Amino acid sequence: MSLHNKYIVLTGDLKASRKIKEREKIQENFKVALEKVNESFKEAIVARFIIIGGDSFQGMLSSPLPIFDIYYELFDNISYPFYLGVGIGSISTKLSKNVGEMDGEAFYKAGEALEKVKKKGTWISFRSGWEIDAIVTASWNLMADVMWRWSERQKEIIMYYRRHGENRDAIEEATKNFGVTDKNIYKILRRGRYHLLKEVESALKNLINQKWLNKKIKPDTVEKR
């Protein structure tokens, strides 16, 4: 059960999907990405993330804490640009593990957010009805814009670093895994602006969680499994 009977709906859509050349490969990446999200964040997932209409996806959470980790997971595995609409609100139907069997405020907001981001041609739109919506949307779009400019090599190494603890041990493991010096790893992290992205992510997590709990406290983190 979610706090205050509010839920978080994430609705995504592949960008310019009609122009996809390697459609079969992207579709397979799409499936793998959602499977990983469903497995890694199952404790926060109310309704599993599923593909809708071939080029879109949707899922529902009981907490906003893992939304950035989920975005990174999708970014890493879909390997194709996508729009994302995030809506926070109530639902007007019974809870179901099938996201297609539910409806309500959270779904309307997510749908409206997705339409807005598609019209603007940006990356993400966050709609909660709170006064922080514009701040979260603008900051998250800046984060996404940096991420989608990474080269494949940058992406591979930065995501490895993120998954392995984001510490000195992660640097040492990365040097062995990729056959480069720690100096090169640090350089890639710096050029990818990753530490700056982490600062923005942390600030947004705190801001969203404070509004979610209506308290000024530092949130716990939801660990990936």
Task: Give an overview in words.
There is one protein chain. This protein has helices at 23-40, 67-78, 105-120, 133-147, 152-163, 168-178, 182-191, 194-213; strands at 7-14, 45-52, 56-61, 82-89, 124-127. It is of the alpha+beta class and 225 residues long. It has a domain at 3-132: Reverse transcriptase/Diguanylate cyclase domain (Alpha-Beta Plaits, 2-Layer Sandwich). Strands 2-3-1-4-5 form a five-stranded mixed β-sheet. Strand 4 (82-89), helix 3 (105-120) and strand 5 (124-127) form a beta-alpha-beta unit. Helix 1 packs antiparallel against helix 2 and helix 5 packs across helix 6 (168-178). The protein is globular and about 55 Å long. The model is unreliable at 216-225 (pLDDT under 50).
